Amino acid sequence: MAIIEIKNVAKRFGAVTALHNVDMTIADKEFMVLLGASGCGKTTLLRIIAGLETPSEGEIWIGGRRVDHLPPRQRGIAMVFQNYAVFPHLTVFENIAFGLRMQKTPQDQVRRRVTRTAELMHIEQLLERYSGQLSGGQRQRVAVARALAMEPEVILMDEPLSNLDALLRLEMRAELKGVLAEAKSTAIYVTHDQVEAMSLADRIAVVHKGRIVQAAEPIEVYRNPATRFVGSFIGNPPMNFLPARADGGGRWSVAGFSLQGPTAERPLEFAIRPEDLTPAEAGIPAIARVVEPLGPHLLVTTEVEGQTFRAVLESERRVVPGDRLHLAPMPGRARWFDPETETAIA
Ligand code: ATP
């Protein structure tokens, strides 16, 4: 059982606090993605779990054992990094076998495990090639295979697909998901790519300024962002926000459009995803500014009370710049945030 417990972990680099008291438990065999913008602290957290960095405060437990005082080698983890260090002067076989050789694994077992993981990663035909002769995508597979060959209880990955071109990334993403499910390892995967996060994760932990602001299933993070930041960071085109004025009794006025919302005294911020809007008789009054036919749908960038407000509409819809629209939020899809704390109102 490889449950990972991060207990009250803080990390300071001189005057910079990279992590503030992070608490999180990752279940056995769970695929957890740490998602956040550049510099938010996600790599630092991964490196602390790996043992490449010591926490300023707090503890790391893996499988019920405290590991933060142990060297990386003794933590039962394997790692795949962005600049996946594949040794060019070794064959693919020897690259995959590298960790096993270090552990003095018997030769027959090395052969069995290397062959199996190579098959899993679809590189069995490359085993005798020198890694220097491989494409970026193939090298990437070798790096993942090397980690999997260790049959680790925990696999840590830091932007492992970032060096690949878009199509290869897409392919590898789909493969990784299947491969890791089969490997039955607990996985932590760092990325700043929200689509990658949504696609791979059992749960996404959104990291913002050194804090985990939400850890939940992808659809939950998407539908019910815990903070304004999560709502704006996840989703493309991004979530729309508009000020809302309380009309009493849970009625709210958004750009003059009246709708039902939570009961609160103070002004709130109304939020809606662009695909959760439909043109209707009554809705938020918007003037179309830019109309982009994207194939499967139409992206309309509008202006509402001087602010940018986007709607994703059916591709058959005929809208031209200058059109006046009324955009109605689909039932149950509006979200509300406290503008002071920037957190969601239940
Ligand atoms: P990226 O996606 O750009 O790698 P990240 O979310 O992984 O970003 P971290 O690398 O964890 O972010 O960095 C978090 C903060 O800690 C940043 O402000 C960074 O500058 C700082 N930091 C990280 N490592 C060190 C270090 N060794 N010395 C000083 N500051 C550091």
UniProtKB/TrEMBL annotation:
InterPro entries: AAA+_ATPase, ABC_transporter-like_ATP-bd, ABC_transporter-like_CS, ABC_transpr_MalK-like, ABC_transpr_MalK/UgpC-like, Mo/tungstate-bd_C_term_dom, NA-bd_OB-fold, P-loop_NTPase. The keyword ATP-binding applies. One of its GO terms (molecular function) is ATP binding. It comes from the Bacteria. Belongs to the ABC transporter superfamily. Keywords: ATP-binding, Nucleotide-binding, Transport. Residues 4-234 form the ABC transporter domain. Gene3D superfamilies: 2.40.50.100, Nucleic acid-binding proteins, P-loop containing nucleotide triphosphate hydrolases. PROSITE patterns: ABC_TRANSPORTER_1 (PS00211), ABC_TRANSPORTER_2 (PS50893). PANTHER family: MALTODEXTRIN IMPORT ATP-BINDING PROTEIN MSMX (PTHR43875), OSMOPROTECTIVE COMPOUNDS UPTAKE ATP-BINDING PROTEIN GGTA (PTHR43875:SF1). This is ABC transporter ATP-binding protein.
